[in-house]
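Hello again,

I reread your note about wanting to compare the complex against the isolated chains. To keep things tidy I'm splitting this into two emails, and this first one only covers the full assembly. Below are the input lines as submitted, including protein chains and any nucleic acid or small-molecule components. They are followed by the predicted structure of everything together. The single-chain runs will come separately.
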Amino acid sequence: MRRGLATAAVVVALLGVAVGAELRLGRVQRADPLGRELLYLPSPEVLKVVSVGNPGLAADIFYMWSIQYYSLFEPHERFLYLEPVYNLITDLDPLYFDAYRIGALIMQIQTGGDQRQLQETVQRLFDKGLANLPTSWELAEAAAWDMYMRFRDRRQALRYAEVAAARAGAPARIKRMVGVWRDSEKVWTADDSIAYWRQAVEEAVDAYDRKMSLSKLYDAVAARDRETLDPVLGYLREDLGRCPASWDEVVRRGALVSVPLDYVGNPYGIDPERCELVPLKKISDQ
Amino acid sequence: MRAIRAIAANTFREAIRDRILYLFVGFALALVVSTKLFGMLTVGDEAKIVKDIGLASIQFFSMLIAVMMSMLLVSREVDSRTVFIILAKPVRRWQFLVGKYLGLVAIVAANLVFITLVLAVMVLAYTGQWDPMLFFAAAMTLLEMLVLAAFAILFAVLTRPILGSLMTLAVFVVGHTSAELWLLTRQLPGTLTRGLVAVVYYLIPNLERFNFRTEVVHGLPIPPAAVGWAVVYAIAFAAVALVLAALRFRSKDLR
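Full-complex prediction:
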């Protein structure tokens, strides 16, 4: 009994020494000029061999490590290694959606440095993901919003939104998002916009989608009408020295043959201060 | 056939009482159950991590069971001289080996079913979805073990247990990387060199042929031909190893 207790005491004491030594070792400052933690990032080829048929597991391990390693949200040069880290993970498991999505999110934490370069890095990761996950509209939508919200790059946002909208199973809201962004970026003509929204109304998947698409179709038609009618109002203001009070007056003065009607057949209004066409937009679902 | 069945049943009973088996099964279960902890370390799809770790554990521990048990089961019989008692009966040497092999495969299969069931329940608990494809992945792992256990029996007959274990482990590692040899044949100059490397490739079992874990984890389609030919490949390779083992065992001096 006494012997057993003595043995246990020795074991506990030795464990205490080991733990104490480990604690002390943790406090010792050592030179790390090359960033030892990330110095040996193995190649995916090597890891595939080492994982003996489990590259997905190797990807998981690196992914979990990256989540822990990069979860301290402070600018640091270690973020420079993010692209190789996530390239490694996605080379090991090219179908790993989270690695693309979360990798891009972590990359975007950096607020300093060359933001243009950072955006290109994020885009490279997204593009790789979109190539490897050809059915994922979710990743393309995430890329679109990241470009829009984080980098304020609406052209790239639109590009990714178009990719998302073109993929099977993409919800109607993404298709509407594409139309809205194309309108706001003015990358198409008014007629293109009308044709797009008309098709969206025809292909609406539910009442809400139809209502929203109809609203956008109304706006597209009004935008086209504005392009032709605002110059007429401008001409009359120059001529009269004031803005016409109504479209009836415009017709009376011979500038138009009839009162212009909006998409649903109601007359437009006129903003007297800016002397511009005002759509009244009273849409009832037809 | 009766002799083989009796030896297989006896091997199964013997193996199931072995403490080393419970050690491996215990580790595998601990790893499968602890997958939730790993899942907590991630952001996103926890189920992927749970399945990846679970299926890798199943493969790894099945390999350990197949390698260690096959070595122990054969060498124990020889070392304890019980093999003479068995062979004194109307049992041929090859029947003894095949019986041992089938008993071993049965124990590996039983463990595979048990651990996979635990993994499936874990996945059900985390995701609320029953994933029968996990059992498919486990079945394909069993095919891999079929080949590996046959090699383990061959090495158990050829050499000492420790060396045999190491050689079987080498087959496991090389078997998972042999596809690189095939790639090498495209890079090498000269028809003869390429032919030699191709021969080496065909002599080593390509264990990646039984690896459907990526398809199962990501829910990808699995070509039936890949499964069907994998079954043929496993049976053929295991048979080759067993025939070689039987040939060596026939003339082996057991004293």
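For quick reference: The interface with chain B takes residues 49, 52-57, 59-60, 63-64, 67-68, 93, 95-98, 101-102 of chain A (CB under 8 Å).

B.
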